[in-house]
Design a protein that fits this description.
- The complex is a heterodimer of chains A (224) and B (319).
- Chain A has five helices and 13 strands.
- With 224 residues, chain A is an alpha+beta fold.
- Chain B has a seven-stranded antiparallel beta sheet, with no helix packed on it.
- The two termini of chain B are 36 Å apart.
- The chains are: A alpha+beta (224), B alpha+beta (319).
- The interface between A and B is large, with 46 and 42 residues.
Chain lengths: 224, 319
C-alpha cells in the first residue's frame, strides 16, 4: 500500500511505499505501476517506479495534483497483474578483457575468482527498476559475500553491455556511460534496442533475470 | 528536371553548437529510462509552428548559442526563427537582416546563417512545411544520449542534407511582436528531502545567489554558489525524477534537471522549479546569476494557468 502521497513540484505525485529496499515493497510499487498504466487517468504523462517510490508526472493543463491524488487513492487494484513479468536469461562472457574489476573484487571480498562467479551465477535476480540511462536494469539481491563498494573514482567510460555489481545490486550498462560499479563481464545481448519501435527494453521492472556464463568463442558467435 | 521539381533541401554548411530536431517530446517512457526530451522552451516552439501555419507538433530545429548555417535548394519556402536570435540571409552575396517571429521567404540558393542567441540559450527554426525526419516512440525529438529520434539520435552534422516535404504553396505571412522576458528569481516548491538540509543551508539556499556554470546542457543546469550542507545523508535510494527537480550533489552543489535528464537519481531533492518558470529557466545562459524563491502549490498552479493563458493569447494573436 502507498504510505503517503505528496507533490513533487506542481506537476507530479510522489508516492511513498516505505524506506527499505526489498522485493515485497517493490512488487507493491510495480503492481501500482501496472494498474496505473491500464487506468487511463486523464493527464498522466509518465510513471516511474523505483525501489520504494512511484513518481507520477502529469500535464498540468489537463489535471492537477489534488484531482490525480484522489484518483490514485481510489484506484482499485487488479490482483493478477504480474503476467507482464518474465524470466529472462542473459549470457555473460567473463573473459579477462571484459571483467575489468575482477582482480579488485578478489582483493576486496577476499574470495577467489571462481567462487565469485559461482556465487554470482547461482542466483536469480529481480528487476527493481530500469532507468537512469535508457533501459538500464537495477537487479538484486546479490549474495552477501559479493557486497562490494563502488569504485573510489568512477570510470569515465564503462563499455556498453558490461555487467556491474555494487552492494546488493547488479546492473547492465545499456550504453557506454560513466559509472562506478565493479565490472565482472559483458553480454553480447543488447538490453536496449534503439532500432525497435515497440518495447525496446528487454528487461522490465518486475522481471526475473538469470545470468549464465559463455566462452569468448560463444560471445563472438552471438555477436555475428 | 520535371520529375524532380519538389526536391527541396537544406545543406548544413555549419551545424552550430547543439542543433537537434525536436517536437513536443516523448511521453510514457520514463519507466524504461527514456526522458521526455522535446523542445526546451515550449512557448517558443509553439510560436514557431503557429507562425508557420503548421500542426502544433511539427518538427523544428532547435539550436543553442550558435545556430546552423544552411544553404537552401528548392522552390520558395517560408521560414521563421523564434527566440532572441541574431540571424541573416545571404542572397546573391548580399546580407539581408530580418526579425524573429515573422515569416521570411527563402529562395533557391539562399543561405540562412543563424549567428547567435542573445543573452539566452535556445532558439527555433520552423519552415512552412515539414523536415523529413525519423520518428521513434511517437516523437522525432533527438536524444543524443540514447541515440534515438530524428537524425539517428545525433546533432546536425556538417555537410548533411536535410530533406523537406509538404512545402506550403500559399506562403504564410504571419508574424507577431514578442519580447522574451528574462528572469533571475526562480520560483520553486519544496522537495521531498527538504529536511535533509540544515537551517543555515536552507537560509543560504534562498538568500544567496548561484552561478549558472558552463557544465549546463539539455540534461541539466549545474550551479555553483554556497555549499548546501546535508545533515542526514548525501545519497538516497534512487528514485524517479521530473523536469525541474533540484538535486543537491554530495559536494553540496545544486543541479536542476532539464528535458533530457536521467530518469532516476540518487541525490536528495531540495525543491522543484514551478512549471510556469521552466521555459525561462532553460534560457538562462552560463555566467548568469540566479536566486531561488519558495512558493506554495496553490500559487504555482495559479501562476501556471496565467502563463498558459498568456501563451494561448499570443498564439491567437498571430496573423
Amino acid at each position: 500500500m502507498i504510505k503517503n502521497i505528496s507533490n513533487l513540484g506542481d506537476a507530479a505525485l510522489y508516492c511513498d511505499f516505505g524506506t527499505e529496499v526489498n522485493k515485497e515493497i517493490n512488487r507493491n510499487v510495480i503492481n501500482y505501476f501496472n494498474n496505473l498504466r491500464d487506468s487511463n487517468f486523464l493527464g498522466i504523462t509518465n510513471i516511474t517506479p523505483s525501489y520504494n517510490k512511484l513518481v507520477i508526472s502529469f500535464d498540468l493543463k489537463l489535471t492537477s495534483f489534488a484531482k490525480l491524488k484522489k484518483q490514485v487513492e481510489n484506484l482499485e487494484l487488479k490482483k493478477n497483474n504480474n503476467s507482464k513479468n518474465n524470466l529472462i536469461k542473459i549470457p555473460v562472457c567473463c573473459a579477462e578483457e571484459f571483467a575489468l574489476d575482477i582482480k579488485r573484487l578478489q582483493k576486496l571480498l577476499k574470495i577467489n575468482e571462481a567462487k565469485i562467479y559461482e556465487t554470482f551465477f547461482s542466483k536469480n535476480y529481480y528487476c527493481y527498476m530500469t532507468g537512469f540511462i535508457a533501459g538500464m536494469p537495477f537487479l538484486g539481491d546479490m549474495d552477501k559475500s559479493l557486497f562490494a563498494k563502488r569504485l573510489e573514482t568512477p570510470r569515465v567510460k564503462v563499455p556498453k553491455n558490461s555487467i556491474g555489481i555494487t552492494e546488493q545490486f547488479c546492473n547492465i550498462y545499456t550504453f557506454e556511460s560513466p559509472g562506478g560499479w565493479n565490472i565482472i563481464g559483458k553480454t553480447p545481448v543488447d538490453i536496449f534496442d534503439n532500432k525497435k519501435n515497440t518495447e525496446p527494453n528487454l528487461i522490465n521492472p518486475g522481471d526475473t533475470i538469470s545470468f549464465y556464463p559463455i566462452s569468448k568463442l560463444e560471445y563472438e558467435k552471438k555477436y555475428e | 528536371m520535371k520529375k524532380n521539381m519538389n526536391k527541396n533541401y537544406f545543406e548544413v554548411l555549419r551545424p552550430g553548437i547543439n542543433s537537434t530536431f525536436q517536437d513536443n517530446g516523448r511521453n510514457n517512457f520514463y519507466h524504461i529510462g527514456i526522458p521526455f526530451s522535446g523542445a526546451m522552451d515550449n512557448r517558443n516552439f509553439l510560436l514557431a509552428n503557429t507562425i508557420s501555419n503548421n500542426e502544433i507538433n511539427n518538427p523544428v530545429v532547435e539550436f543553442a548559442y550558435q545556430g546552423p548555417k544552411l544553404k537552401y535548394t528548392g522552390e520558395n519556402i517560408s521560414i521563421n526563427v523564434t527566440g532572441d536570435v541574431n540571424f541573416k540571409i545571404i542572397r546573391k552575396n548580399k546580407n539581408l537582416e530580418f526579425s524573429c517571429y515573422e515569416n521570411i521567404i527563402l529562395e533557391n540558393n539562399d543561405c540562412l546563417d543563424i549567428l547567435s542567441t542573445n543573452r539566452s540559450v535556445y532558439g527555433y527554426l520552423s519552415i512552412g512545411g515539414t523536415f523529413e525526419v525519423d520518428y521513434y516512440l511517437n516523437s522525432c525529438s533527438t536524444n543524443t544520449k540514447a541515440k534515438i529520434g530524428a537524425n539517428s539520435g545525433e546533432k546536425l552534422k556538417k555537410g548533411q542534407i536535410i530533406h523537406l516535404k509538404n512545402i506550403k504553396k500559399i506562403l504564410p505571412k504571419n508574424k507577431i511582436e514578442y519580447l522574451n522576458s528574462k528572469i533571475e528569481n526562480i520560483r520553486i516548491i519544496k522537495g521531498p528531502h527538504f529536511d535533509y538540509f540544515s537551517k543555515d543551508a536552507i537560509d543560504s539556499f534562498f538568500s544567496d545567489e548561484f552561478n549558472v556554470t558552463k557544465l549546463s546542457d539539455r540534461m541539466g543546469i549545474r550551479l555553483k554558489g554556497p555549499k548546501i550542507s546535508n545533515i542526514k545523508n548525501t545519497n538516497i535510494k534512487s528514485e524517479g525524477l521530473v523536469k525541474g527537480v533540484i538535486q543537491i550533489t554530495a559536494d553540496g552543489d545544486p543541479i536542476i534537471m532539464l528535458s533530457d535528464h536521467g530518469t532516476i537519481g540518487g541525490y536528495p531533492k531540495i525543491g522543484v522549479v514551478i512549471s510556469a518558470d521552466y521555459d525561462k529557466l532553460v534560457q538562462i545562459p552560463p555566467g548568469s546569476k540566479i536566486k531561488f524563491k519558495e512558493i506554495n502549490l496553490k500559487d504555482a498552479e495559479t501562476i501556471f494557468k496565467l502563463y498558459e493563458m498568456e501563451t494561448q493569447n499570443l498564439i491567437s494573436n498571430i496573423k
